[in-house]
Amino acid sequence: MRQTQLTAPPVQSADLHLFVFDRALHPELFRTYAQYRVQQGKYIAQISVVGLSHMVQITCGSRTVVEYVGRETEFLPSRGVVTRFRLKGERDHERKLPEGGCYMVSSQVETMDEALYKSVHTDLLRHAGRRGWLHKHDEWADGDLAPFTHLDHEARDGEFHVYAYHTFPHERTLVKTQSIFELR
């Protein structure tokens, strides 16, 4: 029998919510593990890995829209929330933004048997090695599988697409979001 030294991550897949804000959030509210910046046309996208979750901040002129996928805490502001829901199962959501534009997201939380999860985990790691950004959390490993966040994007004039994958080996769960920010 294999013994596993497990240090569980501070968040579980069932803790995750999706929030959209029509304002910037203070970076000191989050522990940031990695940060990426994309500039395209008239907007700047700041993408952050915040544990086994993420934050995307799009700034276009004086307007900012933020997608935060993570744990709901008392530190999150209530002002400026455009959308909020718990991530579970599959869900598609579309929301017009207050100053024009649109936000669309498709989310999926999938728990698998051990063999399928290991295969998906390995395939996603391989893909992340070729495209996008990868942040592994070896400190929360479950045996030979470490949780990770893989983020990828497509930047177009007037649109920003984000593909996010968060793995939870101790739960054999994958959380996926595909978001589109249409900017005017």
Number of strands: 12
Please tell me how large the radius of gyration is: 16 Å
Query: H/E order of the elements?
Result: EEEEEEEEHEEEE
Largest sheet: spatial strand order? 2-3-4-5-1-6
Kindly report the average pLDDT value.
Answer: 92
Could you give the distance between the termini? 58 Å
Percent in helix = under 10%
Shape: globular
Tally of helical segments:
1
| Binned strand content | over 45%
Structural account:
Strands 2-3-4-5-1-6 form a six-stranded antiparallel beta sheet, with no helix packed on it. With 184 residues, the protein is mainly β. The chain is globular and about 45 Å long. The longest helix is centred in the middle third of the chain and has 17 residues. The chain has one helix and twelve strands. 9% of the residues lie in helices and 50% in strands.
What are the key terms here?
single chain; 184 residues; mainly beta; 6-stranded antiparallel beta sheet; 1 helix; 12 strands; disordered N terminus
Concise synopsis of the structure shown:
The chain has 184 residues and is mostly beta strands. Helix content is 9%, strand content 50%.
Give the arrangement of secondary structure elements.
Blueprint (H helix, E strand, L loop, with lengths): L15 E6 L12 E7 L2 E7 L4 E7 L2 E9 L9 E6 L3 E7 L5 E10 L2 H17 L2 E4 L11 E9 L2 E10 L4 E10 L2
Antiparallel strand pairs: 1-5, 1-6, 2-3, 3-4, 4-5, 7-8, 8-12, 9-10, 10-11, 11-12
